[in-house]
TrEMBL record:
Catalytic activity reported: butanoyl-CoA + H2O = butanoate + CoA + H(+)
Localisation per UniProt entry: Cytoplasm
Gene: acot11a
Any Gene Ontology biological process: fatty acid metabolic process
InterPro entries from the UniProt entry: Cytosol_ACT (IPR040170), HOTDOG_ACOT (IPR033120), HotDog_dom_sf (IPR029069), START-like_dom_sf (IPR023393), START_lipid-bd_dom (IPR002913), Thioestr_dom (IPR006683)
Region annotated Disordered, chain positions: 1-23
Top-level taxon of the source organism: Eukaryota
HotDog ACOT-type domain residues: 24-136, 196-307
Gene Ontology cellular component terms for the protein in this record: cytosol
Swiss-Prot/TrEMBL keywords: Cytoplasm, Fatty acid metabolism, Hydrolase, Lipid metabolism, Repeat, Serine esterase
Organism: Sinocyclocheilus anshuiensis
One example GO MF annotation: lipid binding
Compositionally skewed regions (Basic and acidic residues) per UniProt: 1-11
Official protein name in the record: HotDog ACOT-type domain-containing protein
Pathway: Lipid metabolism; fatty acid metabolism
Amino acid sequence: MASESHHKENLHNLQLEDEGQHRNPSEVKMSQIVLPCHANHCGELSIGQLLKWMDCTACLSAERHAGCPCVTASVDDIYFEHTIGVGQVVNIKAKVNRAFNSSMEVGIEVSCEDLYSGRHWRVCQAFATFVAKRTDANKVQLRQVVPCTHQEQVEHSLAAERRRMRLIHHDIMQDLLNNKTFQRKNHDEDEALPTERTRVESVELVLPPHANHQVNTFGGQIMAWMENVATIAASRLCNAHPTLRAIDMFHFRGPSQVGDRLVLKAIVNNTFKNSMEVGVCAEAYHRDEPLRHINSAFMTFEVLDEKGRPCPLPPIKPEPQEGQRRYQEALARKKIRLDRKYIISCKQTEVPLSVPWDTSNQVYLSYNNVSALKMLAAKNNWDLFAYYRVSLYTVEESQSLCFRVEFEMEIPAQRAFILLSDISRRHEWDQHYTLCKLLLRVDEDDFIYQVVTPSVSKGGQYQDFILLASRRPPCDSGDPYVIALRSVALPSHPPTEEFHRGECLIGFLFCPQISYYNQASPEVLPYISTDIAGLSSSFYSIFCACRQYLLDNIISTSAFTPSAL
């Protein structure tokens, strides 16, 4: 069994070993040299122009995969890390990460190249959702993306979790706005600047050069016009030239065609210490038709001094009613923005295991929980330690040791998923789990537990872990069942003298066998060090007990429905 598993692992590694020779069929590249007509007053590439190029490249990638016209549906948060100067080259690469029914996620990478020094650096990364639109009446059913490299496998797997996050983004905002914590009073009116002075309204006539081959206005063109009025609004507040740092996730609500008049409105919603949020709305009309809402976006600007450091900004005085609403919503969006950037945009190794949990960042912690497990599983340099019927793999990277335990399933994957999802029963097969107490049911797929484990050393202090458990059924037939667990900090359950608080990142994947993963922290390593050294086989006994636990409960029909205690 172990030799067969080893053969499969080697074959898998051979298939993925040279990603440089593989070219994704949907991949599209664009290179543009920045000319003065593309630049702003500072001699830097206009972000609006960059957005147009990004949208065009991504659309061509989507249409290459779909084989039919596609339209931009949404774009996730974009953080601009560097500016691009006149004379430098912008390199944009886009490819389809995953296709669903009629929509697909397109990953976009933007880098800059200096032709004189030969230097390259990353500018930004984005994920856009495109929808296929056939000209006939037939329903669109996109073909699935087949990942062929290690990185493509990671992005394909994470795309399903990002889609889940997009679908509930609006609900997160509403829950946060209902939280009275964000109902803050305004600054002293004597030192605050009225937002009315920042209001901008502009109209654009959509001409053929602004449209695509479907006669619809390019999404990138609309974003460029929106960026233009947002920059004017920000400039009016600070009496300086601002720098766009981020654009929040936004959705296109409807199309615009050639001949439409686009009315663009912008206003500063709120200022923070060194940044400001500008809200922008795009509406369209044709002749005597009423206005149609096309898009709304929220952009974050900074004002930099001569050394490139952010300058402090004055507080604002919002207008009554609508202005107050925008002011409060900007506070909530800042909270979401910081959570998303910290938890999602950072590399997995840069995010501490025990991130504080609250209702506003739950969806992002859940995303990070599942994505961290999938990225751990996608590593292709595992070393195999073979044991009878149960295999142990290890990989050491970035001063951390990770291990994987793998064994064949003898019951249906869905049944095994349901049984092992109930962490409160883990002590029935794992002797290291003395207590598994359900603390909070977040939603139908996410739960928070307290786990207590005995000390490895005789007479030592017991350890406890506060774990966020996130379970995911397959998104389609090629996906595994997932159970991901990571440490979180729960304000209602701080560390106590009774237990030593530990941290871990663990989980299960079910497809086609059961694979258990663990990123061994200092608190976990003593439990497995003797197994890895070949001095013990206690893990073998544990997972044999796990197999027997699954077999003993195969005929049970009870579903996993824990309730908060």
